[in-house]
Amino acid sequence: MNRAKATVRIETVQTNSVLEVTLREAAREMLSVALRIEADDYLRRAESERDSSNRRLVVGNGLSQERTIQTSVGTLKVRQPRVDDRRQGHTYTSAILPPYIRRTMNIDAMVATLYLHGVSTNRMEDALRSIVGEKFESMSPAVVTRIIERWQHMYREWSERQITKRYVYVWVDGIYTKVRTTNDRPCMLVVIGCDDRGEKELLAVVDGERESELSWTAALTDLKRRGLSAPSLAVGDGALGFWAAVNKVFPTTKHQGCTVHALRNALDKLPKKLQDQAKSMLHDVFNAPTEDDAKKMFAAYRSTFGEKYPKAVATIERRLPMLLTYYQFPASHWKSIRSTNVIESTFATIRRRSNQTNGNASRDAALAMMFTLAKHAEKTWRRIDGFNHIANVLDGIVYADGELKMVA
Fold first, then answer.
1. Do 199 and 252 fall within a single domain?
2. What φ, ψ does residue 33 adopt, rounded to 5°?
3. What is the mean pLDDT of residues 341-352?
4. Residue 360: exposed, middle, or buried by beta-carbon count in 10 A (0-12, 13-18, 19+)?
5. What is the pLDDT of residues 330-345, one digit of tens each?
6. Are the C-beta atoms of residues 147 and 124 closer than 8 Å to each other?
């Protein structure tokens, strides 16, 4: 097996492609749900109206042909419910997506508001008004409420599902937003797993406190109750309360600190004029071909900055063994397991857009929002490289500097 090449750089967070795909898929699905609820509400209101043979005068009639709608998040293809209204002088027309409309520039406002801001009924109404315009009053308020309830129901079902697969790696982080569910700064605890085929999957989204051992213990205990066995490695920021919790719930799981978080923390303690130099040296540390090489390169970093900027060195040094755990795993997995990039890229949009939110929101709606965004983003997550090594890791086979060493 070849050693990992030192020329490979630490991966950077790429958000645009994930964000675009997420918003397009979220827009399409939310629009489809809203159209279905709108049509069902119309049918319900006319349910009692019948002809002389006691047949309904207003009935559903399948779906229309696929329509292409141009939006500011890209091209969406949708099929609207068809309604056959035989009452004289009545014709069903969707207020959300009227006939012949081929372009809307505000559907991204609906998606962003519904998922990131619109977790109260009033905000949902504002978001829908951006699409419907003057015809908004023709929509029942039940449409807004039922959209919210649908996502919350999906989240509750998902949160109680049984976990039947084995997961070799998990990535964890606490995501803060400004969508306030209480008077405190809210945090959603996120767990993403890598299964025995190398596929990434969302495992948990729960509210809690990022630095709280108690919050993480509750989240991990619930996952264990539903079938999660101890992963081989957990990847997360060193500041999390997660590490004490995982020692209790899954004591055999090894710890890997996020090298990207560590690098940022170190750079924050240096003057701007020195940050490029320090960043390059730390890249060399975390991309070294062997653990011994990484330690030598860190010694050079410490020699360069330690005297004048001891905090920039200490923040790395005290966690260095935990930051280099990835050397005990297959080299082809390193770029995936030395950072929480999969969580960073998925939730960067929530951090950015939720800054515009004001007012309190329902806890359940906020959780459903985070869950829905993550599940849409999950479709874009790629399989980790070297997935053929996963069986070895799950069987306890030890790697040294990324190469096979011995059977445990």
1. yes
2. -65, -45
3. 73
4. middle
5. 999 999 999 999 998 8
6. yes
